[in-house]
Amino acid sequence: MRIAVLLFGQPRYIEHSAKSILEEFTFDGHDTDFFCHFWSHKEDTSEKSQLNIIELEKSVIEDKVEEIFSPKSFMVEDKTEALILITKSYLKLFSSS
């Protein structure tokens, strides 16, 4: 059996959670394929009531993801651009109703 796992969103501390993710989705006798879609920033709320946006190098994310998960497919994109596209698609879909 083949298992597909989609990882998405902010790549917060991906290197710290990778071991758990791999253990959770690895089964003897089965193949696991990873697919990843991440944004090129992470939000850090460790400071009290302060939101820090940390820009991450796209190539650094890609290198880490490739090394850890060897995904079948993955994409790293800017969150703002993605949200604009989603909003435009949503408006187009519901404005024609």
Summary, kept brief:
The protein is of the alpha/beta class and 97 residues long. The protein is globular.
Task: Give a description of the structure.
- The longest helix is centred in the C-terminal third of the chain and has 17 residues, at 79-95.
- It contains three helices and five strands, in the order βαβββαβα.
- The chain has helices at 14-24, 58-69, 79-95; strands at 2-9, 31-39, 41-44, 52-55, 73-77.
- The protein has a three-stranded parallel beta sheet with strand order 1-2-5.
**Rg calc:** 16 Å
Shape: globular
- Strands of the largest sheet, in order across it? 1-2-5
User: What does the average pLDDT come to?
Assistant: 81
How many helices does DSSP assign?
A: 3
Report the order of strands and helices: EHEEEHEH
| Distance between the ends | 41 Å
Helix/strand/pairing category: alpha/beta
Strand content: 25-35%
What about the largest sheet? 3 strands, parallel
Return residue spans where pLDDT drops below 50 for at least 5 consecutive residues: none
> What's the β-strand tally?
5
